[in-house]
Specification:
Elements: H1 4-8, E1 14-17, E2 20-30, E3 33-35, H2 40-43, H3 45-55, E4 59-61, H4 68-83, E5 92-96, H5 107-114, E6 122-126, H6 132-145, E7 151-159, E8 177-186, E9 193-199, E10 207-208, E11 236-237, H7 239-260, E12 270-273, H8 278-287, H9 299-302, H10 309-317, E13 324-335, E14 339-352, E15 356-358
Parallel strand pairs: 2-14, 2-15, 5-6, 5-7, 12-13
Antiparallel strand pairs: 1-9, 2-8, 3-4, 7-8, 9-14, 10-11, 13-14
């Protein structure tokens, strides 16, 4: 008899959430910028030029002494001010990241105090990366839709550059840092949002920091490969397997979301996918016959910012002259875990704050 996990593989169940609107979005990045071409001295000009051509990444904002929480706090302060939202009106705070401040306490608890949110706020962390923003939207929206919350602040950010080995050619030129803040409100007039979520833990070892947590506190576990290139506390990525996973899972995710929205490529105004690399996204768009002009690409100046990449792409590539985002959006994140998540949401005059550039330190 087929077990539950096997029976569920390949399914694309759609989950609908009603009565929730996205009210505003803001992002923050560190001031320090590193050019990918500067790595030519270490890896060779030809190698770096090939990396730029494939990934589309030319430069990245890199955290110095900032943590992901600092970037998210800066984005949150800007957004709450621009929306004229009182911190006391927020009853739920969700922090999504894989680069938390501490093993404990939860970074969300620290952010509750820093942002001046009331002590009645439910605050908790979620440990997800590439799919984290869409998972966060689903979680916050579900709490609001159920009546368990009235206004949620979703903070999503990562500083992956802190766990990248300088000698690791597969990741050294790819990752940047950023943080985001999104305010969601209960609204009975809002159109439903459709979500597709999935997990396949068989791919966990293909994108991993093997040492440092409680499975291997001292980093004694054998490094997955190339011990001269990276240590047990550094990020390991099997790029070929990640690419294969993306091509195996994401087309079905996109098709399921199109079906749930009863539309094709022409019925979606913007496709905002996790900014993994340009070649991968262009390949997906071509395979799924998505209009190229509707697929947002912003990795040129920011790199792969993990969980921040989707809100950052909206912030820098989807607003009108009035600073608002409107239209039917398909969002999709996929990667570490393996984990994937997508949604179709109708954005109605969502305020998008100008990008905040932090100067370092505790914001």
């Amino acid at each position: 008899m087929q077990n539950t996990a096997e029976a569920g593989r390949g399914r694309t169940d759609v989950r609908q959430v009603k009565n929730v609107k996205i009210s505003g979005l803001a992002c923050a990045v560190p001031a320090a910028v590193r050019e990918v071409l500067d790595l030519a001295e270490q890896f060779g000009v030809e190698t770096i030029q090939k990396i730029i051509a494939s990934t589309g990444v030319e430069r990245r904002h890199i955290a110095q002494d900032e943590c992901a929480s600092d970037l998210c706090a800066a984005a949150a302060r800007r957004l709450l001010s621009d929306l004229n939202v009182e911190p006391g009106s927020i009853d739920t705070l969700i922090f999504v990241s894989q680069t938390h401040d501490y093993t404990l306490p939860a970074t969300a608890c620290v952010l509750q105090e820093r942002l001046g949110l009331p002590m009645t706020t439910a605050a908790f962390d979620v440990a997800l990366g590439c799919s984290g923003y869409v998972y966060g939207l689903w979680l916050a929206s579900s709490l609001l839709s159920s009546g368990g919350s009235r206004r949620a602040l979703l903070l999503v950010g990562d500083t992956v550059s802190k766990i990248v080995a300088e000698k690791d050619r597969s990741v050294a030129a790819l990752f940047g840092d950023g943080g985001s803040a999104t305010v969601l409100d209960y609204d009975e007039g809002a159109l439903p949002m459709s979500f597709v979520l999935g997990t396949d833990g068989r791919g966990a070892n293909n994108l991993i920091v093997p040492g440092g947590a409680f499975r291997d506190r001292q980093g004694t576990r054998a490094v997955l490969d190339e011990p001269v290139v990276r240590g047990p506390f550094d990020l390991y990525m099997n790029g070929a397997e990640i690419f294969a996973f993306t091509l195996a899972r994401v087309p079905a995710l996109i098709a399921a979301l199109h079906a749930a929205a009863a539309t094709s490529g022409n019925g979606i105004d913007k496709y905002v996918f996790h900014q993994a690399n340009r070649f991968m996204l262009q390949h997906l768009a071509k395979r799924m016959k998505l209009p190229a002009e509707k697929v947002v690409l912003n990795m040129q100046n920011f790199g792969n910012t993990s969980s921040t990449s989707i809100p950052l792409a909206i912030s820098t590539g989807c607003t009108g002259d009035d600073g608002m985002a409107s239209g039917r959006y398909m969002l999709a994140g996929f990667g570490v875990g393996y984990s994937w998540a997508g949604c179709v949401a109708q954005l109605e005059n969502v305020l998008v704050s100008p990008l905040t550039v932090t100067e370092g330190g505790n914001q």
